[in-house]
């Protein structure tokens, strides 16, 4: 499903925006905004549900405890009353459904930006080499990788598959050539004959695991050297992987630290992601009673996620998408916090805020009492 959404929805949108403004960086920004706007109603449903549950949760928990105590010997009545509470305030799971519905599109967008034209596209083949006397008993099973759309022009792309006609199991001393071809069977090398400077799309081959088990030549021929497991990777260069945008040196650049140097553009993108995530979480608590546990989570979560992305290998183009998406999410959260609440929830919120004010006043007053003269 993710590949279908990417090929038939996201890439055509990408082509459209690149046709308007020939900049892959701007195309990423435009694509991100289009998808986030399209998913606005679903995201809004999740944000509204989370906001309402944050207000209603203490009341729901109190009601549930009272119902379970009052009808401890009447399970049927207990379930009926618990159901009435859910009808009044809504289910805590109501916000999950919009998230589940939009996840395939967001995963497809993420996958699109990790592939061509923004990054080099890898094809991974896990090989199993068997002794010569065992391979004869193995029935050949053709192997075909997932299809990836490879850009060979600004808006010209072809779906390419890597295949091994006799499968990924070979015998010691045998060879197998990996075929890179389109879905209709045309060799990728034939596709490149019509492209200017076809050498820039020539795949590179490497053994990423088990270099004592297999070797691979420049034309993709795998030769089995000894029994064992090995991994071979073919990588087709991305058209825009080395294109810059604003302060980003290359949209396909991966990693905060590489080749002994810090990639400051990656660091800026990751820092921006963390800051916008923190601000978005603060906005989600606007006008709400204090929640110490939530406040702690709001401080720790952005730091943890930001730290992870400093070392998680994501291309700069993906980080750009995540930053733009966070900014949009923050604006959406701010807008939705201004929405009027249902009367029953507004009443509860008013009570919670009034109680918070009284508690703060009592605490402030109490801190001065030890210093006041007796009788004051």
Polypeptide structure, described:
This protein has helices spanning 2-20, 24-38, 40-70, 75-89, 96-113, 132-135, 188-191, 264-284, 292-311, 316-337, 343-366, and strands at 121-130, 143-144, 148-151, 157-164, 169-171, 175-177, 179-182, 204-209, 214-216, 221-224, 228-236, 257-258, 261-262. With 376 residues, the chain is of the alpha+beta class. A four-stranded mixed β-sheet has the order 5-1-11-8. Strands 2, 3, 4 and 7 form a four-stranded antiparallel β-sheet that branches. It has a three-stranded antiparallel β-sheet with strand order 6-10-9, with no helix packed on it. Strand 9 and strand 10 (221-224) form a beta hairpin. The chain is elongated and about 80 Å long. Residues 367-372 have low confidence and may be disordered.
């Amino acid at each position: 499903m993710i590949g279908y959404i990417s090929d038939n929805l996201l890439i055509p949108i990408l082509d459209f925006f690149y046709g308007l403004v020939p900049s892959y960086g701007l195309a990423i920004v435009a694509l991100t905004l289009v998808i986030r706007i399209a998913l606005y109603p679903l995201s809004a449903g999740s944000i509204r549900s989370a906001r309402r549950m944050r207000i209603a949760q203490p009341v729901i928990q109190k009601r549930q405890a009272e119902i379970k105590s009052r009808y401890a010997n009447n399970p049927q009545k207990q379930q009926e009353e618990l159901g009435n509470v859910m009808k009044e305030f809504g289910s805590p799971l109501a916000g999950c459904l919009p998230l589940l519905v939009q996840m395939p599109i967001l995963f497809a967008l993420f996958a699109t930006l990790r592939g061509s034209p923004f990054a080099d596209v890898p094809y991974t083949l896990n090989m199993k080499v068997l002794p010569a006397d065992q391979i004869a008993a193995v029935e050949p099973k053709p192997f075909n990788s997932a299809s990836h759309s490879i850009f060979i022009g600004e808006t010209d792309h072809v779906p390419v598959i890597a295949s091994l006609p006799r499968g990924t199991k070979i015998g010691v001393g045998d060879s197998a050539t990996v075929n890179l071809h389109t879905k209709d069977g045309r060799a990728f090398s034939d596709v490149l004959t019509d492209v200017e400077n076809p050498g820039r799309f020539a795949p590179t081959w490497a053994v990423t695991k088990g270099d004592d088990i297999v070797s691979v030549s420049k034309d993709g021929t795998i030769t089995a050297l000894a029994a064992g497991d090995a991994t071979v990777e073919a990588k087709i260069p991305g058209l825009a992987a080395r294109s810059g945008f604003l302060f980003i040196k290359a949209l396909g650049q991966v990693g905060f630290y590489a080749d002994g140097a810090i990639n400051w553009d990656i660091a800026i993108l990751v820092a921006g992601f963390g800051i916008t995530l923190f601000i978005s979480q603060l906005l989600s608590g606007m006008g709400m009673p204090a929640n110490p546990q939530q406040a702690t989570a709001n401080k720790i979560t952005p730091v943890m996620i930001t730290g992870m992305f400093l070392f998680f290998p994501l291309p700069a183009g993906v980080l750009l998408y995540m930053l733009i998406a966070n900014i949009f999410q923050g604006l959406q959260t701010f807008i939705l916090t201004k929405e009027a609440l249902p009367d029953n929830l507004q009443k509860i919120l008013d009570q919670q805020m009034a109680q918070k004010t009284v508690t703060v006043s009592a605490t402030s007053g109490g801190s001065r009492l030890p210093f006041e003269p007796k009788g004051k």
